[in-house]
Design brief:
CopC_dom, alpha+beta, membrane, transmembrane, Immunoglobulin-like, copper ion binding, 680 residues, transmembrane helix, Formate dehydrogenase/DMSO reductase fold
């Protein structure tokens, strides 16, 4: 009787592969769903604005230090530290958060003398990395102080994070790439040769990744400190944040992969680790710029790099083993070469796209040459090109000398080069990405110290200025939109401004930064006296124009004078008001209207009728004419009033700038007690 034995190994292997890739696909879809659902700000936190301003100066001791970030942050235990001119620590109050976690502030508990001070800050970003940075500011006159550029923000525990991510990426490469390398080598040899070939390092890679993922989770719990994470080991806290969920996914995926390797299910282990690449995509820098697509781009880059590196490591190991046994490894190297071409193109293409995504609008060259991230990106690109050159030389050598001993020395050097690429990639994922210097602020920065305000109109666009210590805030509005910061407004604005201070011989351009719809802010070092601000404003819906406004500094508050003026006007029995109203200052000032009225009727119709205004600033007094100028501001209503008073504290001229129009008034009184006529 003939015994027929049917082998089930191949079908079983195929079923295992099918189950593995189904699990991988389901996991990948789940993690990518998390990527698309996650908010855009998943990369390192960026310091947008500070009070006192970064590398700026304030005339007097500030009451607090306040930082504004581009995303919600978690203050560390010592989030804000202040250092004095001689390195002495300055006492600050408890750290508080505001604006949905995007601001961090602390009160300054000491009076600061004239000199330079350093703010050292530490926060945890949404990607889980703890960011640190420092900047300087000056108290008192800026002269004599040497304020340079601010330091780039650093990642706390950068060395530990980089080493752990090297381990994580290495584990991914040894497992994913090892499986692909094993398939390549099996196709190029007989069954007997395959039995004697070394196995891929699947279990070793999974365990290395597991240990590294656990270390990254501990660092996350410790706010950037491995020792701190061990001291407060609370694994369930990982589930409270997106970075924690990413760390948990990576930890579970590597644990599952290690279990699959122990069960000799290598394909299932590699398929499970697809979730690690997807999770890294969620926390990587491109995800912050292009949500969803950024995660997919990083996933593609990481998978291609892992297979490229891991497959070469296994093919070289098999080639060396076969060479020791007197067998040829040429076919194995050729098989890898065919796959490596496509992997190289994927790595290079996705890497270049990631670099372009992260490049600041100011230019790719500046990003690459002026930031730490950009310089390391250049190093990575250079190493990749060297590895590619070695690979090309090795392939040509293989084609020209098919009987030469393989793997060649170039292939072994290529392995070392790819190891360098992996290490630099781990460093880049830990470094803070380049940030646009004039990134738009999420909301207007608050005024600091005394405030001076002025308003005007440029064509159809209303303009309001708020001047405070170290800054100038400009708000624009049009007739269809009030207030200007209305989030549903679709109007876009452009603004160019310059300032002419009392001691300047020529105007200087202002470096404006957007802070919302119709909102711009610029750093300013105010000089004593009256500064002329010239503004050219345009909008997408209305014609703009150019106007000049005056800001008095220091801001001398004149609340009592306004109350006195209102009392005087209420006693005026009769006056004649000549009024012109216009919405477009590019044309005529409007038809002049003559309106007889009493002083009481005038103040009842004006916003200052109660004798109170949020801002009342004395612009100046002319001793020759006896006239005094006041600037009133009602920022909540977008209304600004310029009053000219006579020597009796009566209003003789008034300009009222509202969001939709400008009103110009001249007041003429009957002959006063001195027999003087007020002529129009």
């Amino acid at each position: 009787m003939k015994l027929v034995v049917r082998t089930t190994a191949a079908p079983a292997r195929r079923m295992s592969l099918q189950r593995g890739w189904r699990i991988a696909l389901a996991t990948l879809l789940g993690v990518l769903t998390l990527a698309y659902a996650a908010p855009a700000a998943q990369a390192h936190a960026t310091l947008l604005f500070a009070t006192p301003s970064v590398e700026g100066a304030v005339p007097t001791s500030p009451n607090q230090v306040r930082l504004v970030f581009d995303q919600e942050v978690i203050p560390a235990e010592s989030a804000l530290e202040l250092e004095g001119p001689r390195g002495a620590a300055i006492r600050v109050g408890p750290t508080t958060s505001g604006e949905n976690g995007r601001t961090v502030s602390a009160a300054v508990l000491e009076e600061l003398d004239v000199g330079q001070y350093v703010v050292d800050w530490t926060v945890t970003a949404k990607d889980g990395d703890t960011m640190t940075g420092k900047f300087r500011f000056a108290v008192g006159s800026r002269s004599g102080l040497t304020l340079g550029g601010g330091d780039e923000p650093e990642v706390r525990g950068l060395t530990a994070l980089t080493m752990l991510r090297i381990g994580l990426f290495s584990g991914l490469a040894l497992t994913l790439g090892g499986l692909v390398g094993a398939r390549i080598t099996r196709r190029s040899a007989s069954s007997q040769t395959r039995k004697e070939d070394p196995e891929p390092w699947l279990l070793a890679g999974s365990l290395l990744g597991l240990v590294s993922a656990a270390g990254l989770a501990v660092v996350l719990l410790g706010s950037g400190s491995l020792a701190g994470g061990i001291a407060r080991l609370r694994p369930l806290e990982l589930l409270n944040t997106t970075p924690g969920l990413v760390a948990a996914v990576e930890l579970i995926a590597f644990a599952a992969a290690a279990a699959a390797c122990l069960a000799r299910r290598g394909a299932l282990a590699a398929a499970t680790l697809v979730a690690v690449a997807a999770a890294e995509g969620v926390r990587a820098h491109p995800q912050a710029t292009i949500p969803g697509w950024g995660a997919a781009l990083t996933f593609l880059h990481l998978c291609a790099a892992a297979v490229w590196i891991g497959a070469l490591i296994h093919v070289v190991r098999v080639g060396l083993s076969r060479r020791r046994r007197g067998l040829s490894a040429v076919e194995a190297m050729r098989g890898y070469a065919r796959v490596a071409v496509w992997l190289f193109l994927l790595v290079l293409g996705s890497g270049v796209m990631s670099g372009l995504v992260l490049a600041v609008p100011g230019g790719l060259v500046d990003t690459l040459t002026e930031t730490k991230y950009g310089r390391w990106l250049i190093v990575k690109l250079a190493v990749v090109m060297v590895v590619a050159a070695l690979a090309v030389w090795a392939r040509r050598h293989l084609a020209a000398r098919p009987n030469a001993v393989q793997p060649s020395r170039a292939a072994r050097i290529e392995v070392a080069g790819l190891g360098g690429v992996l290490a630099i990639s781990a460093l880049l994922t830990s470094l803070a990405p380049p940030v646009q210097a004039d990134l738009e602020l999420p909301f207007p920065p608050p005024p600091v110290g005394p405030v001076s305000a002025a308003g005007g109109r440029a064509g159809w666009i209303g303009i309001g200025l708020t001047a405070s210590q170290g800054q100038l805030l400009v708000r624009l509005s049009t007739p269809d939109m009030h207030p200007a910061e209305d989030p549903v407004d679709a109007t876009t604005y452009e603004l160019v401004a310059n300032a002419l201070a009392p001691e300047d011989t020529s105007p200087r351009a202002l470096r404006l930064r957007r802070c919302g719809t119709g909102c711009f802010v610029a750093p300013m070092q105010w000089q004593r006296g009256r500064t002329t601000i010239t503004l050219k404003a345009t909008s997408s819906d209305f014609r703009g124009g150019t106007t000049a406004l005056t800001v008095a500094w220091p801001a001398k508050q004149a609340t009592q004078l306004l109350k006195q003026t209102v009392r005087v006007m209420q006693q005026v029995p009769a006056l004649v008001l000549y009024e012109q109203v216009t919405s477009d200052t590019n044309g005529a000032s409007g038809i002049e209207t003559r309106i007889p009225m009493s002083g009481q009727e005038l103040v009842d119709s004006d916003p200052y009728g109660s004798g109170i205004a949020p801002t009342v600033v004395l612009l100046g007094h002319d001793p020759d004419t006896g006239e005094t100028e006041l600037a009133l501001a009602y920022p909540g209503e977008g209304t600004y009033v310029h009053l000219t008073l006579d020597h009796h504290d009566r209003i003789v001229r008034e300009t009222l700038n509202a969001p939709k129009h400008r009103t110009t008034r001249t007041l003429v009184y009957p002959e006063d007690d001195d027999g003087h006529d007020h002529e129009h």
